[in-house]
Amino acid sequence: MTREQQVLAFKAELLQLAKEGITLEPETLDRIRAHHSALFAGEPDDRLSLAMRLASFVGAVALSAAIVTLFYRFWGSIAVPVQVGILVAGPILLVGVTHLLKEWERSGYFATLAALAAFSAFVLDLSVIGTIYNLPPTPHAFLAWGAFGLLLGWQYGLRLPHFAGLVALGLWISALPGHLRSEELPDLWGRGEAMAVTGALFLLTPLVAKELTKEWEWQAFDLRIVGMVGLFVGIFILCVEGSQSWLPMADSWVEALYQVVGFLVGGVVVAWGVRDRLPHLANGGMIFLTIMVLMKATNWWWDLLPRWVFFLILAGIAIGVMFVLRRIRDAMTARRVA
Amino acid sequence: MMKPAWGLPIAVVLVASAVPLSQVLRDRGGERGSLTLSHRELMVQWRDRDENSGVLLGWRWQTPPTLDSVPEPFVADLGIKCPRSSYSCDSRGRRRAWIVVTLDQEAWQRTRDTARARFDSAFALPERDSTRRGQVRLAQEQLEYIDLYTSRLRMVGVGLDPAGLAAEWEGRPHLVLAARLRTSRTGGPRDTVGGLGPLYTIHAEPLPAQVYVPARMAREIEDSSGMDRAKFEVTMTIGRSWLPRVDRVEGQGFVPYLPQ
Description:
The structure holds two protein chains of two kinds. Helix content of chain A is 81%, strand content 0%. By secondary structure, chain A is an all-alpha fold.
């Protein structure tokens, strides 16, 4: 929770208490009000911040697309040394622009735009160098992209390039086992176990590196989100396509095993989210469990039951999920109050 | 936690860009073979020229680069493990290997000679023969198709050691290319043909799938009317690190469309 959100929640609670007949001394209220005014002097309204974030994201994606398509429009008429020069200089210049924009505007919305453009320019750099010199595809480019995104995010406190860097790094780690077995892109990511293990690594890193995550809460948040998605996607792939597994078992056995594992892992993630007051984990786990239940319901009943009975059962499952979510919410509220 | 130095992202860009460039520099230090291919074997890839001005050439084959009915020991030597119970080797069946490609000029020439003979016999028909015009046109189109589109490129070997493959083919025109292999069983899971055990089909895709033509050479094959009727020769060279590159492009004009 940001400081601003805490203050808003505090104000809402004070209003509720006043309705219930409990108030603070006027001098205390005045001092608190003055302190909060000084704290947020010059800060934008939270709703405007959300609009700025959205505009920054859309602008970043559009600028990145413009850079890539501009290069492809003209590269065919440029000599190879000049092409390489442009490709290498592009991301470096955009890192400089990011630095200047961050100095100019501390909130980072404009810097995010430049940073994501720098990330896209770097992706373009290595991809096109590979095309120009007919290099065979390699997953190690994802390591470079991941390092770049993470460093840019850490240096300037920018979420989007940090998130992109985590995704790229995750793709590199999950591609490594296949690469060591001389498999080729894009088959490297057909390995559900590699993706699930990478996701689990990311998810557990904030637990292990507690001192780091205390200071860098948003990095820990991004690690958990990317890790959770990787873990769930990896398990889901193996639930429906057992041939992608490394296990030396029949495909149907692999799928059955990972369906059981999926339900267990989903439950553990939900419980973890409730215990440590991490709503994104609790919600993510519930979404995954819901998808698993829907998948099993379809496998068992789609051909067996009349359609109206099938959809009625799904509605019942959805209502059950709502009751469970309500209990989770109440449990999280109880823990917060305690 | 301390913030990283501001120059670190820039250092990552420089180092990561230097890695492939140094690989290319090392590759240019030697040559492991070259082959002159034509517009029939390396076809200009279509793209929206308003959005992408680069020229890429794609491989075109006389016969698809496939080894059919290959016994299990051969597949095992390539490091591919296929489960006995299914057709497809799936993820376990795809891996990087090396292929040898060459030009089958004889087969192509035979095809062309046959088409030429057909054209000559159609042309030799009397002028008053009502089928003459149609037959001549058909034979002309077949000849043109062979001249423009019928490839001579064939895959003749697969292995894990590029140097070994190159040594086998030394003295004969060839190229050794990196490739991605996809393997599947030829017959049913329990079929064993003639007591040979399970047989497999290996399909190879050269890496890279498309070859870049630098701007100064692309002018030889570029025409405002389109590139599918350009005739050209491309000299492909394999460098010391087994990277393919286009060394020379010689334009040989454009084939006009046949008059209606």
